[in-house]
Inverse folding.
């Protein structure tokens, strides 16, 4: 009887555990679906270590600032979808939720336009929301913003900073995105748009989350076949240069007289980068070719010397060889004549 009671109790406990497990799993999945931002554990983040933007063995570096217009086809991957589509959100909604949840830091966009990833330049979330008139609810020290109140449709441009450098340790030329700034486009009374840079993001901080977010990069192929991190690493975007790091901290528009000069300056800088990179490999190929040519010349010189030595040895051998005696040949001729004379006599 006791055994039956014990077995019954065990069956009840197992059944209740089996029912509770699916319910807990459903609750976890629902909570994850409600959270639009990517959630990564510290261990998961450590699996995507930040790439150092400035390796210690850099022998040459040039920083370029570009403006990405999301109305261009190549940049549409950052804008789509304008409104959340199921669990898919656009780039700004993703980074905005990461900032609200305290997973990444936003840094103030300063008057000089340069980024400064320092503790003193971290942007207060409440100031960010107030400055751009984003409606929020604050509860227990946390900020909540409805999806419809996130101004993702108004963010139609981005500033990005590229670092081009030669890494002596890896012996290669690299280009990396190191900073990103979303730009809010506000419509003015005359239907023109006013650009308002919002904040800077350190790319190394957001790259682990971007690597877990898939995007659609083509209007022809509608599959989400690339991560946002790959999109930036492979430079699938298209942006116009508006500034380079220089001693006077001037943007192109500050020292270019008109639009024609501005376009020519952009083209000049682009070609400088292309020519510099191609020149590195061209000089390497030329060095290899010169080395091969020198090796070939040396081989030919050695072969020529060997032939000359062989010919000289042959001449020396001929000079020292004893002359052949011609007497036997004369003797043979005489005996032959005698034999002919004898035969005729007979």
């Amino acid at each position: 009887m006791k055994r039956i009671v014990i077995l019954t109790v065990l069956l009840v406990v197992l059944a209740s555990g089996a029912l509770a497990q699916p319910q807990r799993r459903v609750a976890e999945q629902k909570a994850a679906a409600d959270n639009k931002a990517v959630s990564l554990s510290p261990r998961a983040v450590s699996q995507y270590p930040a790439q150092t933007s400035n390796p210690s063995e850099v022998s040459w570096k040039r920083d370029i600032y570009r403006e990405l217009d999301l109305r261009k086809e190549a940049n549409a991957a950052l804008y789509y979808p304008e409104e959340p589509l199921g669990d898919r959100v656009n780039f700004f909604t993703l980074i905005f939720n990461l900032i609200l949840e305290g997973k990444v830091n936003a840094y103030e966009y300063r008057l000089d336009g340069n980024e400064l990833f320092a503790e003193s330049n971290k942007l207060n979330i409440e100031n960010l929301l107030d400055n751009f008139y984003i409606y929020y609810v604050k509860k227990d020290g946390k900020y909540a913003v409805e999806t419809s109140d996130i101004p993702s449709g108004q963010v139609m441009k981005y500033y990005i900073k590229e670092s081009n450098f030669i890494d002596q340790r890896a012996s290669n030329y690299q280009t990396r995105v190191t900073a990103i700034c979303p730009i809010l486009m506000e419509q003015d009374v005359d239907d023109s748009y006013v650009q308002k840079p919002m904040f800077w993001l350190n790319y190394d901080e957001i790259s682990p989350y971007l690597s877990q977010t898939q995007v659609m990069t083509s209007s022809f192929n509608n599959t989400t076949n690339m991560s946002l991190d790959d999109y930036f690493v492979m430079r699938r975007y298209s942006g116009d240069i508006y500034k380079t790091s220089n001693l006077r901290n001037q943007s192109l528009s500050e020292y270019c007289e008109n639009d024609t000069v501005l376009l020519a300056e952009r083209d000049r800088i682009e070609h400088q980068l292309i020519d510099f990179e191609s020149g590195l490999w061209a000089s390497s190929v030329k060095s290899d070719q010169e080395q091969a040519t020198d090796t070939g010349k040396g081989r030919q010189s050695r072969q020529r010397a060997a032939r000359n030595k062989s010919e000289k040895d042959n001449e020396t051998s001929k000079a020292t060889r004893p002359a052949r005696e011609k007497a036997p040949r004369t003797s043979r001729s005489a005996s032959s004549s005698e034999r002919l004379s004898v035969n005729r006599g007979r």
About this structure: Confidence is low (pLDDT under 50) at residues 29-36, 330-346. Residues 27 and 33 are 10 Å apart (CA to CA).
